[in-house]
Amino acid sequence: MADAAAALLSSPGPGERTALLADRLSPRRGCLGAVWLPAGGPPAATGSSLSPTLLREVENGTTQSSAGWYVGPARQDEAGRLYSPAGLRLDGGLLAVKISLASVHRVAAEYEKSFGALTSLHAPGGRPQVLTKGNPGSLSSAPGGVGSSKGLAGKDAIHTQSAVDGTDWHVRGGQGRPAPRVVHRDGEWIVHFGRVLGTPELEDLQRASGGRVVNRDGRGGYVFRFARPSDMNRAAPLFRAKGARYIERHGVARINRTPDDPLYRPYQWNMPMIDAENAWRTTTGAPGIVVAVVDTGVDRGHPDLQGQLLPGANLLDPTRPPDDDNGHGTHVAGVIAALSNNGEGVASLDWHGRVLPVKVLDQDGAGSAFDVARGIIWATDHGARVINLSLGQTEDCQYLHDAIRYAAGRGVLVVAAMGNEGTDTPEYPAAYPEVLAVTAVDPGGVFAPFSSYGAHAGVAAPGVSIASTYAGGQYAALSGTSMASPHVAGLAALIWARSPNLTADQVRNIIQQTAVDGGPPGRDPQYGYGVINVGAAVRSVQTGGGWRSIFPWWP
């Protein structure tokens, strides 16, 4: 809105202003309608009309705000579309907008479906809009002030935040502690009789039950394996008739490679979902593999990032360090390489990796394509093996593409977020062929409704309510393809830690070919090659060089 208002001020005539409104504030960008009321001259409008009552509300709201901004409570229009009135007052006029909340509402509904939490939407200067539990299709106004999404509240609840482009709304909700994940051997049950069964008796029991003894202890304990779950229901009475003391599922015991970070088990659903724990039994990373986070900077004082950060660079102000005045870059860095198994905060994918922070975005998370391109080149020249770009724009830029080619030509794997528009409109740099583009999925592995998609999608990764480090020494759970991308960057670092001589193309192939197909068979616009599988990817790598296929038909 700020960019559109600034452009409107410099537009010479009503026709140009109307065209500018239609371009900058279109439905594709999440706007149902907009009106520009200049201090002098005729107004300009686009899309759905704003009623006089709504215009007065916006005008009063922006007048009362010291910053000139207003975001009102959510409501529905005559077509049943969910929207929120918003406005920005400048010296030269007033911009009033009907912001579509459809994409934000979908994110909120996804949170409730995933976590069973009472979820609320919070706008700056507005009252929270509560997504009523059990009625995900409606929003109602709720009392109270604007909520903060920064930090994890207590031990049994987490503050969650959406990352929907084009809005300043965020989603907040309470998530309870999930039950511990239990793994069993398929179709196997332990049966303890308290006595050793004779051979004829045991053979008769196997025939009658449909089970097969696959192990025994010589003291009356047996492991029976069944081809079908229904066989077990038929077998239980037979076992009890033979005097079985107990019958139980055959659990799987594993080396404990689950990190002791206190936020891991309650909140980091994303790591077990992509099989990271199995990968950590093979490798937890190597300090020599550097991942550049070209972003808003990183909180260099965060306790969970100590020793994990290289000096980096601030390309917006070379006289200052790359400190994070937004929070986004710190969150991305924590997904990749937060201190892990240290009894504090969160766990990351690459426990022993190093993050190279390159600040190219300001405190609002905005920056120029030129600065992003310079950041890519700088990171390439300063030792990055992987560059994470949780950013994008819808306009192609040759200079940016040249920087991507520069990095790829020097053996760097560039990973980028697809965007959060929920459309197939390409965003750059993710759409460049040299880039591994990442979409987002939820805890069920389902494509996230806010995630952009397209034929250039490479892989999918967790991107809903991802807990990680945040600016100011805090922790937060954010959502967006910005959160999905660093999962892939961290996986690339683990693969290189296992085999440093691999090329970037080989690492990319490993990530894609070990992914779990998530949509129609084969590559598709939503999941790319599938949801990343960190365990399978790391296991496929041969120590020292090369990689072996886990598929017999893949070379």
Automatic annotation (TrEMBL):
Keyword terms: Hydrolase, Protease, Secreted, Serine protease
Question: What molecular function does GO assign, one term?
Answer: serine-type endopeptidase activity
What SUPFAM superfamilies does the record tag this protein with?
A: Subtilisin-like (SSF52743)
* Major place of residence: secreted
A Gene Ontology CC term for this entry?
extracellular region
Q: Name one Pfam family in it.
A: Peptidase_S8
Q: Which family does it belong to?
A: Belongs to the peptidase S8 family.
Name of the molecule in the record? Peptidase S8/S53 domain-containing protein
Organism this protein belongs to = Kyrpidia spormannii
